[in-house]
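User: Variant surface glycoprotein 1302. Structure?
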Amino acid sequence: MFISISLYVTLLTAPVLHRSATAATTDGVDDAGKKVTDSCGEIRYDLALASLLRRQAAEAPGTVQRLSHNAAALRLAAAAATGHRAAGLRALALMDEQVAQAALSRLGTYSKTLEDGAAALQARAHRLIMYRRLRIKSLTPGTATQAANEQSPAATTVVTTNTAVTKTIKDDANCSIDDLNGGHNVRQGDVRPNEIYKLKMFNDALIKQATITLKAAVKGNPAAGHNAVPANPGFVDDDGTTGNSNYLGALGSASELTETAAEISIFDTATKRGGCKAKATNSHWDSLVTAEVARAVCRALNEQPLNTASILQRSWSDIEADSEIATLIALQLNQPLSKDDNDKGKTKALIKSALGPTSTAFSKDVVEYTTTKEHSFQIGDDKINGNLTDLASGPKAAKILAYLKGKINTEMPESTSKHHNYAFSGSQQMQSNNRQK
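Assistant: Predicted structure:
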């Protein structure tokens, strides 16, 4: 079948937007676009790009959620620590929470813009699919057959029968969309959303039905032209009256099919990526014409990616020099940095006292401890195992957090607490002092 249900599977399972490290194309058209030469090529390209935009939009909530889980894991780690270490971990949690909140505030607009671009491309593809299904490519007249009564073209008399055989574009050459990565030279794997600034699109003026030409011939030299017989519309006689003239069935032909594609600038400049063009004057099918589809794609491509990078993904050299982290640590210790104190040397010293003296220590005692290290908590009769990232996003996160806070408060009351650079760096095996019996 030309329109397959597997299209929707393709849209849901297609790869995420390609982030290539190679240089952008010099002419603004990617490898897949260069191979678009007809309506089928554009259909496949439009659906491929739409699937990539939808996949990116679908993955956005998950990336924001993972960042929130990282922040929650840092909160758990901080709850099990004391002094400088606890302040350092809470500072990192605050940084991740801040980034997650900013990403969350943009999530709705971000996803809608990408979906709008994908919807425009899919609607355009559907228009071209129906064009291919309906546009007559050829019309071949059949053999005329003569009726028994040839004395006059009475209204109930079929003088000749000439059934034409019509063939659409789809009949002549099916365009498969079941596999956007195979079966055609326009492949999804060659689409580069982050590089293009032009789309190769089918000429709007060609999206119309063929011109059908019908001809009727009569025998003889008509005195008043080939007039239709007034009482019998559709028949032509040499003198405009019924009689014994010979009639020939109508002939027909369809206009020649011409399919061409042109490069359509996505942005407001033809030679690079930039802003989006203003909306053109409304016209028939205006939301499906090349200019409006390009505008929707432009807005989608210009939508800045959500910043969902965790603080734990940053390099140690970047973290130890971050004055914002140092300020958050100092404020928790009730030791705000003065302007004189807030120099690079003191910033590094404070951060190292809280998060580790070296990159190796930070990687092991903070990053691995929070994200990959297996922990075991014995809370009453409930034994909970897992890494902090998974536990922080699980159903027992609140229970673990409350337990850790209670344990720290019991073992080290606030009135007698001291600053400790490292609360623990080995495996965790926490036993509740009030185990149920």
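Residues 311-431 form one domain. The mean pLDDT is 81.
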